[in-house]
Amino acid sequence: MQINSQGAALIVGASSGVGAALARRLAREGYALGLVARRIDRLQALCDEISTSYYTRAFAYQHDVVNTAEVPGLLGKAITDLGELDLFIYCAGVLFPNDPTAYDAHEDQLILHVNLIGAAAWITPVARQFQQKYAGHIVGIGSIAGDRGRRGMPAYTASKAGLHTYLEGMRNRLWRDGVTVTTIKLGQVETDMLKNADRRRKPISPEQAADLIWNAIQQRRQTVYVPSWWRMVGLAIQHLPSFIFRRLNI
Ligand SMILES: NC(=O)c1ccc[n+]([C@@H]2O[C@H](COP(=O)([O-])OP(=O)(O)OC[C@H]3O[C@@H](n4cnc5c(N)ncnc54)[C@H](OP(=O)(O)O)[C@@H]3O)[C@@H](O)[C@H]2O)c1
After folding, report:
1. Which residues, in sequence order, are bridge partners of residue 182?
2. Band of pLDDT at residue 5, cut at 50, 70 and 90
3. Is 162's pLDDT higher than 90?
């Protein structure tokens, strides 16, 4: 099979849901892919599917983002395997069921570690690589939930708010160096994670989410709500006075 790569992308959190759909979408565009997550069997199956269905190649890397010390070595290996890196997507995330009565420090720390600290551990060395070559695109998968602290999931909303702010800082640092940083504020998507949401609000499919994220990547957007109608919801939520917001069941 002739390989027709239009660049190389690394996706952290690619074994299911939005990350796996993004891997297939980018493979369709001809990207060579590095796919990272803990469930190596799923990653390997996805790599096999991509290598047989699309004119590109894909590599699987097993990694738990909590193990941040592994990141420099793994990033180096991925760049060697891929030959280059043009696009980096941090999609890994966890959400436990909403429960305003729960006070579980271990769960909260895990959420912050996977959704935020893991993102910083990956994005810092990727940013350095891109800054040195004066090119590259970093994408972080945030959430509409990061627009406000919610009583049912303080740690998740804090992790996504932190990710949004971290990405903004990186964008402001890197724009002079020809590097694009895109923040995706995702609404509900029909994935395993959605099983932990307390209610459903017009979820889209992972494939629809991947198409919209790909549009944002192509247009080198800064911050994008996916799908776009969540932008109005986000604006309304951000501007609701606290004494009203705290009474809402969200
Ligand atoms: N679904 C929604 O409604 C929704 C809404 C807003 C934002 N998001 C965000 O979208 C992103 C993707 O989530 P999804 O909906 O596609 O859910 P998902 O199917 O559960 O995917 C989560 C991904 O994160 C990876 N991951 C979780 N913990 C990890 C760890 N410790 N180390 C490495 N990888 C880890 C998982 O891989 P392994 O388990 O194999 O490690 C998996 O690939 C997340 O950042 C999530 O917060 C989702």
Report:
1. 139
2. low
3. yes
Both structure tokens of 101: 């009565």
**Helix residue ranges per DSSP H, the chain:** 17-28, 40-53, 71-82, 105-112, 118-133, 154-174, 206-218, 230-239, 242-245
Beta-carbon neighbour count of residue 118 at 10 Å? Answer: 26
- The burial of 32, by beta-carbon neighbours within 10 Å (0-12 exposed, 13-18 middle, 19 or more buried), is given as buried
For residues 14 and 210, give the distance between their C-alpha atoms in angstroms, rounded to a whole number.
Answer: 12
- 126: its two tokens: 């990727």
In angstroms, rounded to a whole number, what is the distance separating the alpha carbons of residues 201 and 207?
Answer: 17
Structural domains of the chain ordered from first start: 7-245 (3.40.50.720)
User: What amino acid positions are annotated as catalytic residues?
Assistant: 156
Q: Which residues are near ligand 1 (CB < 6 Å)? A: 13-19, 37-39, 63-66, 91-95, 114, 141, 143, 186, 188-189, 191-194
Residues 15-35: what's their mean pLDDT?
98
What pLDDT sits at residue 99? Answer: 78
One DSSP character per residue, 30-68 reads TEEEEEEES-HHHHHHHHHHHHHHSSS-EEEEE--TT-G
**Separation of CA 213 and ligand 1 centre (Å):** 15
